[in-house]
Design a protein that fits this description.
The chain is mainly alpha-helical. It contains 11 helices and no strands.
């Protein structure tokens, strides 16, 4: 078997996805904390007040610890998927529960990488689409936890889509540029129309940027299918949470995770298949 077929095979990409998924867990947990710390410091400087010093936090420091007892996690306790099962989902020191979301993110990322390998074959562009999928997984989880879509992730994703198209690695550049324009302006228009009618904000500006990034990667023809799919899934999940009392009064379900999920589905299905489903071919 040629080296390229081995390197980009679904099995190898799945193993890579497990490792990337472990890193995504760090991003999902730490990036909002990093942003919050930065916002507090900036606000304190603008107001001219002192803010208590807090330990610096990055994606690499400090070393991962158990939030319950402070036990430093050893390397063999941080092996993707395997360590969680070996530890039976508990800290080795204090036996506090370790969230099942950690292995779920790792398995989901591995499965997505394998599907990308199946979809795009042994082309180096498969790695680009793996990065696209991994970023969407992280954005979906962060938005679900915090209702925040960080610019530090959405904007690089947007530019990466435009540059990849300009280099001929993904879709035609014109489709990418107009996809970004259509993605941003479509939700921007809905936002302002809703605000004019109700006086309330129906979504955040991060959703505009995320859909612009999806348009840059997938093309302007996919913007409407993405919005339709995300709206349908979001409505079903929101109604289900409301009926099960999982959604408290005054709270709302963020739209970003459903945009991200719809973008992944469209990527894996391909433009022609999606248009065929909608009867637009």
């Amino acid at each position: 078997m040629p080296p390229a077929e081995i390197l980009f095979s679904p099995f190898v990409l799945a193993l890579l996805g497990l490792c990337i998924g472990s890193f995504l867990n760090v991003v999902i947990h730490r990036l909002p904390l990093m942003l919050e710390r930065g916002w507090k410091q900036e606000s304190a400087e603008l107001l001219g007040v002192a803010v208590p010093e807090t330990p610096a936090i990055t994606l690499s420091t400090p070393r991962s610890r158990c939030p319950s007892c402070g036990h430093a996690i050893a390397w063999y306790e941080n092996i993707p998927l395997a360590s969680w099962f070996w530890l039976r989902g508990r800290c080795s020191a204090c036996k506090a529960r370790i969230s099942a979301r950690y292995p779920v993110i790792e398995v989901a990322t591995a499965a997505l990488f394998a599907l990308v390998g199946w979809r795009f074959g042994t082309a180096p562009a498969a790695l680009l689409w793996c990065a696209f999928a991994a970023t969407l997984v992280a954005l979906a989880a962060i938005d679900w936890d915090t209702t925040l879509l960080p610019d530090s992730m959405t904007l690089p994703l947007l530019w990466a889509g435009l540059v990849s198209a300009a280099l001929g690695w993904t879709i035609p550049l014109g489709d990418s540029v107009w996809g970004a324009v259509a993605g941003y302006l479509s939700l921007w228009s809905v936002y302002w129309l809703f605000k004019l009618v109700t006086g309330k904000e129906g979504m955040g500006f991060g959703d505009f940027k995320l859909l612009a990034a999806l348009g840059a990667w997938l093309g302007f023809k996919m913007v409407l299918p993405i919005v339709l799919a995300a709206s349908l899934i979001g409505a079903i999940v929101g109604i289900g949470m409301k009926m099960s009392a999982a959604l408290r009064e005054g709270r709302y379900v963020p739209f970003g995770p459903f945009l991200a999920g719809a973008g992944i589905v469209v990527m894996l299905a391909g433009q022609q298949r999606v248009l065929g489903w909608l009867g637009w071919v």
